[in-house]
Specification:
The chain is α+β, with helices and mostly antiparallel strands and 283 residues long. Helix content is 58%, strand content 12%. The longest helix has 31 residues. The chain starts with a strand and ends with a strand.
């Protein structure tokens, strides 16, 4: 259900009051998925009321609900345009969730990476907390041992990102720098000077998680035991750096999977309103 109150658009999850304490756990993965395709991370709010037994009862009873909302100060004209596409965006998130939720639930390190990334997006990567969460998300993906973490993270991520048309040299250098800054913050080294490129840690992390989801959906990889699956995939990535045929095969697989994550609705809206021209990014 969608409901607008003032300048806040609420998306309601219709729940069951018999399992009220489980409702938040059910909706969190939808928020994780949303953060992978939207730069505006939604917040989860509590709800109340009583449940309904069927769609025919909709509107006849107060609903037990958990709402997800995002508040944006937008021109009225932009709001009207965005509302036309909001239900399509939510349907798209639902389809992504349904297609990849089994991959997420099967791989604990993916759940960890998604959880930290969602927190990073909520807290904003230009805050210290958000920045640290984004780097930890990358660690959850690319590290499998307590040594050489910075090098393995930077090298593997830069290679994988290069298969998505991202400059690997820039990514390698930036990720090393980000890891150093993360260590400074975590170990109490004081505040950091402003870095206008911090947004890149969000870009790199988002793309990396998406790529891992695509690769882990492969049935052959899913047949590998859960305990060995991550190590096996990282070894496959390491080998692809040295083998051109494996590199081409990975790139083809990734590019095909990226189609799933392409937004079917406009991301930005622009026009002329009563208070002048506007351009806003809705999600």
């Amino acid at each position: 259900m969608l409901d607008k109150k003032g300048d806040i658009l609420h998306a309601y999850l219709l729940g069951n009051d018999k399992s009220a304490f489980e409702n938040e756990g059910k909706i969190i993965p939808y928020l994780w998925v949303s953060s992978l395709v939207s730069s505006n991370a939604p917040d989860l709010e509590g709800g109340g009321g009583v449940s309904i037994e069927s769609k025919e009862e909709l509107g006849t009873e107060p609903l037990y609900s958990i709402s997800v909302s995002t508040s944006l100060s937008l021109p009225e004209e932009a709001v009207r345009d965005i509302e036309k596409h909001a239900h399509k965006f939510l349907r798209f998130i639902g389809k992504l969730h349904d297609k990849y939720i089994s991959i997420i639930s099967e791989n604990e390190f993916i759940e960890i990476a998604l959880d930290y990334f969602y927190e990073a997006e909520r807290k904003f990567v230009y805050s210290n907390e958000g920045f640290i969460s984004a780097v930890i998300s990358m660690e959850a993906l690319f590290n499998e041992a307590p040594t050489d973490i910075k090098y393995k993270l930077s090298h593997r991520a830069a290679f994988l990102l290069s298969l998505c048309e991202i400059d690997p040299v820039e990514a390698f250098e930036k990720l090393k720098d980000f890891y150093n800054k993360r260590s400074t913050l975590v170990h109490g080294g004081g505040s950091l000077s402003h870095d206008p490129d911090r947004y890149l840690v969000s870009k790199y992390t988002r793309k990396s998680i998406i790529v891992f989801l695509i690769l882990l959906k492969n049935e052959e990889r899913r047949r590998i035991g859960k305990k060995d699956r991550k190590a096996s995939l990282l070894k496959e990535i390491d080998c692809a750096m040295l083998d051109e045929n494996k590199r081409k095969s990975l790139k083809k697989e990734i590019n095909k999977g990226l189609r799933d994550f392409k937004l079917p609705v406009p991301r930005a809206f622009e026009g002329e309103g009563k208070n002048g021209n506007y351009r806003v990014t809705a999600w």
